[in-house]
């Protein structure tokens, strides 16, 4: 279901498959034209008492310390109130189409950006619905059964609404996490020339397979560019590597040797050493040194200096 | 089309510079010529330059290793120079790490390497 909603969100407007997703999502919420027709009848009541409810709604909001922090001044509050009126009018009689969804999604992302938490959002929504439901029941004393089904239909749409907003929350967060991950993985690893023929590559941070691949290419191209005959790969700043990355490190060192550079691996933490042993690497197969200083000394020795 | 790799003499070293991708029979041809020339010219080192090669498959690598070992048995040593980064990566992925064969970045480094010993 989650996929249906988020895909209906992520597709751009007007695509044919978009409407199918919308239909699926509405079926899941058991939303029909009948519901829409019922809530539309609430239009007059909502217009009549809308402002009063919104006043009460904001009194409630501003009484809460966390919620009130989201409002700068009275002008801001007035502006938001006007938007709120429109929002609730749409809740009652707007067509549930792609532009409605796009609009709800936009509002969700504004909320996310300004730091309105889901608790704050749903709590406020519930407050409003409760007020409105009470008014509807009051006004329609003569036909409580119909009033009840109207309120139920309204609740369906409200839940659909909340689902849209929360999906947007999740999407925005996920987007942020992905961006952060990308940033981290693109963190460049410098290839430093210590002296002619000797390269130093300090690796800091997490080493995932994406970054390990990038490292291999940088190292091999660095060897060619600097005409290096020895390379010290220092992984002191790497806390742990999984076995795939450990394997990759070993392959990188072997490739460096094929290009005529003596590779030296330094700064292995206990965990990294263990993962290397697990993938079947022994110290014989590669030159290692406990710390960077001894690594550089070893590399110089290999260079014959 | 057969490709005959020229084998040049530089001091007491032989230099075989492979200029294009070789087929299996070309490599075998190179193998027999190197082994003959090592004795004929009393060479003490052989440098095989592969810098123009875009790919070294397992047969080519296996033959190179064979050449290296046979050259050693004939009293000289062999080094391979000029393996390109992407060639190096694909060789390693195939498990071809040329364990006992010295390598160098290019011909220049290769000559320096045999000059030292």
Automatic annotation (TrEMBL), chain A:
<dbReference type="InterPro" id="IPR039379">
    <property type="entry name" value="Protoglobin_sensor_dom"/>
</dbReference>
<dbReference type="InterPro" id="IPR051932">
    <property type="entry name" value="Bact_StressResp_Reg"/>
</dbReference>
<keyword id="KW-0597">Phosphoprotein</keyword>
<dbReference type="InterPro" id="IPR036513">
    <property type="entry name" value="STAS_dom_sf"/>
</dbReference>
<dbReference type="Pfam" id="PF11563">
    <property type="entry name" value="Protoglobin"/>
</dbReference>
<dbReference type="InterPro" id="IPR044398">
    <property type="entry name" value="Globin-sensor_dom"/>
</dbReference>
<dbReference type="Pfam" id="PF01740">
    <property type="entry name" value="STAS"/>
</dbReference>
<feature type="domain" description="STAS">
    <location>
        <begin position="188"/>
        <end position="299"/>
    </location>
</feature>
<dbReference type="GO" id="GO:0019825">
    <property type="term" value="F:oxygen binding"/>
</dbReference>
<dbReference type="InterPro" id="IPR009050">
    <property type="entry name" value="Globin-like_sf"/>
</dbReference>
<dbReference type="InterPro" id="IPR002645">
    <property type="entry name" value="STAS_dom"/>
</dbReference>
<dbReference type="InterPro" id="IPR012292">
    <property type="entry name" value="Globin/Proto"/>
</dbReference>
<protein>
    <submittedName>
        <fullName>Protoglobin domain-containing protein</fullName>
    </submittedName>
</protein>
<dbReference type="GO" id="GO:0020037">
    <property type="term" value="F:heme binding"/>
</dbReference>
From TrEMBL, chain B:
<dbReference type="InterPro" id="IPR036513">
    <property type="entry name" value="STAS_dom_sf"/>
</dbReference>
<dbReference type="InterPro" id="IPR051932">
    <property type="entry name" value="Bact_StressResp_Reg"/>
</dbReference>
<dbReference type="Pfam" id="PF01740">
    <property type="entry name" value="STAS"/>
</dbReference>
<feature type="domain" description="STAS">
    <location>
        <begin position="3"/>
        <end position="114"/>
    </location>
</feature>
<protein>
    <submittedName>
        <fullName>RsbT antagonist protein RsbS</fullName>
    </submittedName>
</protein>
<dbReference type="InterPro" id="IPR002645">
    <property type="entry name" value="STAS_dom"/>
</dbReference>
